[in-house]
## 1
Amino acid sequence: MNFPIEKFKNIATPFYYYDVELFERTAKTMKSEADKYGYVLHYAVKANTNEKLLRILSSMGFGADCVSGEEVKHAIDCGFPKSGIVFAGVGKRDDEINFCIDADIAVFNCESEQEIEVINELAQAKGKRVNIALRINPEIDAHTHEHLTTGTIEDKFGINLWQLESVVKKVMQMDFVEITGLHFHIGSQITEMSPFILLCLKVNELQDMLEKTGLTVKHINIGGGLGVDYEDPDQNPIPDFAGHFATINKYIKLRSGQVLHKEPGRVIVAQCGTLISKCLYTKELQKKNFAILDAGFTDLIRPALYGAYHKIENLTFAYSGIQEVRQLKYDVVGPVCESSDTFGKDVLLPRTRRGDVFAIRTAGAYGEVMASRYNLRTLPKAYYSTEL
Ligand code: LLP
């Protein structure tokens, strides 16, 4: 990625920088690959809620996958048609449900019988019938970080397989909800194809089983977020969407007229976002060297929370034209008063000086949205390649 480093000099750090051209290229590639199979994409708003990016996605024909009433309102404000909005989440409040019923969104992804009873009652009070998809916990291990798996028996998400038949029978008796879809989600940042294949096979089996109870649905939502390359963002800026969809298409058995939905977040927005920071101080000590940045885990919490890897670059050096320089290993840390405020340990970097500009890459997903005001720090601002 090329960074406009001269322009960065006039901007107070830390901040998020979004390469809008890469964002558009990624979204377009995914959409056109999905269109080949008639798959419908709902962007998972939780990954990045920036209005500018959301407006681009809504104009390209993406729907929105929202996990709070606020996200639903924001998606509507950013131009997503209400008929393309899905409301998901394991703990939906009554006021959020009421708002979504009034807004006539496309569908509620539901996680338990109790939740469906509540939606049925609230819909009845309004004299409306609403579409729901049953989120089924398929008991498939996505082989990703333990905090990012959602589809095993240990997880809080979805309706368990052992309950499924009885829940379906009860829900089919309810007058104000209609089961229009089945929803599955096994986790995020999934880099192997085998969990998706297992999921497709499980979905086929469950569809056969549910049809015997009299249920055929209009859409199947195959969730599980395709991973991005955190190690080498420049080599693989756009994931292999063609291969991913071809595999799903090969294994999933859709009924005639049935449409496949997906709700991608990270894979669209991760690579275009970079956290830009400046080195405040360096410490070259006997056992360790530290580069102390002005960004902290309040700006990007993924390394502290998940031990996540983000590639770290010294942009001042990279754009200096100097070829050879002494490299040192640094722990790259932030200013927050906690040892976990570390972006990377033993990172090999050119000898760093106060004032050097750093890039923490692949930070567009779950970066800015997870920022906090701990230590009363200010929230990072966003800047866009098209506006600098
Ligand atoms: N649908 C459901 C039901 C989800 O639970 C998620 C993510 C998504 C869609 C979007 O998944 P994606 O395409 O972004 O992988 N904060 C964590 C990620 C948490 C993901 C939670 N669910 C991180 O920074 O890695």
## 2
Amino acid sequence: MEAPTTVDGPIPDATELQDFLERARRTLTANDVGEFVKPGLHQYPHQWNWDAALVAMGLGHFDPERARKEVRSLLRGQWLDGMLPHVVYHNGSSDYFPGPEFWQIEQSVAAPPGIHTSGLVQPPLLATCVRRMHRRASDREASLAFVREVYPRLLRLHRWLHHARDPEGTGLVAIVHPWESGTDNAARFVQPLMQVTPSASQMPAYQRRDSDHVAADERPVHADYERFVYLIDRFRRWGYDAETMYARSPFLVQDTLFNAVAYQALEDMIALADELGEPTAELERWRVRLHRAYNSKLWDDEEGLYFAYDARHHQLVRENGVATFMALYAGLADRAQAEVLVGAHLENPDEYAPDARSRFRVPSQAKNNYFYEPRRYWRGPVWILVNWMVLEGLERYGYHDLAEAVRGDSLELMRSGGFFEYYDPRDGSPAGASDFSWSAALALEMLEPLPLALS
Ligand code: GLC
């Protein structure tokens, strides 16, 4: 008799499921280099900010003490002003560019002493992951002590975001570099980046290394990469002074994904604060403001999509990409907006739903978007993190069947292709870095639901 099937492929039996979960756990332990867990086997040899948050959440399923260590390691790189850098170089340089020496963070008065880091931030997923680790922890006392220990550091990060990156009090937090978005090559950054125009004499010397381990046609193109480097050169010349960076960075974007992550994190911070008996008024203020600004500024009623806002050139960037659904993840959309996002877009085969052009949910760029490329980094491939956020959002709004379909596709991709950085939506073939930690961490998160009883 044939194994029972769903539209998304064979349902694994219990043994196969256990084996798959074991492979996910082993991927995380194999990438553990002591101080931190590498994001992937070869491509990324340092500790990345939101990777570490996700890794900690994954480790929380089977080794809570190790999970807490991951968070502490990341926080060791926190700057004196609260900024949490996007890379921490615990073990010095490697074959990865940019290495610690490129950043010259010693130019900043806020750089943490005795540790090498980058000078940029990344989407603030950490509070959300810490809260989920806490909800899952069986040793309630140890977990609460840990939350008490890290809470002030998390609060300082969010305070920094809502001040240094929103000095005008718009309600939205700005990013000054595509790398800060965590999704740097996405089409919504093309237009703002095109306005960054370095002359040859302004370009610092550098040697790109990101195509050493991954095919060049899956990585960002040269002209974009030049701009990435040029922007960092500006910032280091300005000593990473937050005021100058906000006022003068040629790239200044109020991003859909970044702000959705920041909003969800505030909800999680408020829950943690309540449990600790800490005040919540400041967090509430940022939350209300962000909610209002997100909908008044980033929602385009005509298209029925959320778009990033280029705050340097005062315009919406009308590119249809998966970041538009992050408003569901964070609960920022109202019922009518959610219906449009799901009905007219997520379920539309010209954009994100499966059809002859794509078998797997959810392509990171709409298929009918000009920049769609099914194998190029953030321009079309399926990412497990994005799928997890989309399915969390769908569940939040009651689209359980569709959430199940996204979960089914994600698991099928990982079961047949392994834990990769991303996958081609046409045939599910894996691409980018192999043995990718956050994919493994999220496999655990998708299959082992949070206990309902706890806060
Ligand atoms: C890439 C991704 C970024 C991630 C990093 C490490 O740069 O765009 O989101 O944090 O790799 O995995």
